[in-house]
UniProtKB/TrEMBL annotation:
Description of how the protein assembles with itself and partners: Homodimer.
PANTHER family: 1-AMINOCYCLOPROPANE-1-CARBOXYLATE SYNTHASE-LIKE PROTEIN 1, BIFUNCTIONAL ASPARTATE AMINOTRANSFERASE AND GLUTAMATE/ASPARTATE-PREPHENATE AMINOTRANSFERASE-RELATED
Top-level EC class as recorded in UniProt: lyase
Pathway noted in the entry: Alkene biosynthesis; ethylene biosynthesis via S-adenosyl-L-methionine; ethylene from S-adenosyl-L-methionine: step 1/2
Name assigned to this protein: 1-aminocyclopropane-1-carboxylate synthase
Classification via Pfam families: Aminotran_1_2
Amino acid sequence: MGLAENQLSFDVIEEWIKKNPKASICTPEGVAEFKNVANFQDYHGFPDFRKAIANFMSKARGGRVKFDPDRVVMAGGATGANETVMFCLADPGDAFLVPSPYYPAFYRDLGWRTGVKIVPVDCDSSNNFQVTRAALEAAYEKARNNNINIKGLIITNPSNPLGTTVDRDTLTSLVKFINDKNIHLVCDEIYAGTVFSCPKFTCVTEVLQDVKNCNRDLIHIVYSLSKDMGVPGLRIGIVYSYNDAVVNCARKMSSFGLVSSQTQHMLSAMLLDDEFVSNFLETSSKRLARRHRFFTTGLEEVGINCLKGNAGLYCWMDLRKLLKDQTFEAEMVLWRMIINEVKLNVSPGSSFRCVEPGWFRVC
């Protein structure tokens, strides 16, 4: 526990690899392509790989949106993709709004080398931690009053750590907010293919047409296969931007974190196989639903509730009633007891900058 890896559908991938030995340059059937793959490659990436990624991104979003392969830019995992976007959009000292609770490693991904700051947008359990326009406005104005230059808003959808999706109305509100402020919106959608129950996932691309006079140059998507396919070791990160300047800049920077040619070659064949993609996404969704149901039902039997989740690899567990008092100090006491005595690796809500003590992420 504690490691966000989707290991439930490796057998589906392994079965495809066995049936398609030509997809690998390390087999007798595929070695004829070794020279072509092993030679120096353009940092644009293989055309078939970009086409395959665009195809998978569309199918992971229910086929409701299409993506242009020419806007697909490679990076070294979602970590590299997020950092690349920050380098393209902000200067050292600039800041991005981030709704809480949020992924703790954003401090590393967004800021360690770029100098970009995080300005939290406080969200709470009164509305299941959904971000509101009022909360955005408050964080934005506070930052401006403190002479902090806000360059954009970044969200994870589906959410890490909440395991929930952002509903269409909220997402439309976010797009209107950034459009009104003329700041960027970065949507980290690396869990788009892990939705296992209603409501369905809504991609930011779907709501662009709902916002009158929306400036698409402000919209950017970060994607990866680490969570949806469970292959974080392959380091496949993607920047997809509607801004031509960002695409061009990110592509030049991608030479610092390319996806290996061997990986591109294999995944091009795999992800252009529509039968495999459909089967994988359906199987993964069913297995995630079964695992989530098993875990949350077990917690309910001992009187522990979770925020109702429908996506991702997490449960947002409510242990507020087990705190000696409603403080973050009490949360840490409970966390140490769970770690040292119960021997379960869970993460306290304060590590995600949750504003309410007593919430824990389980994965």
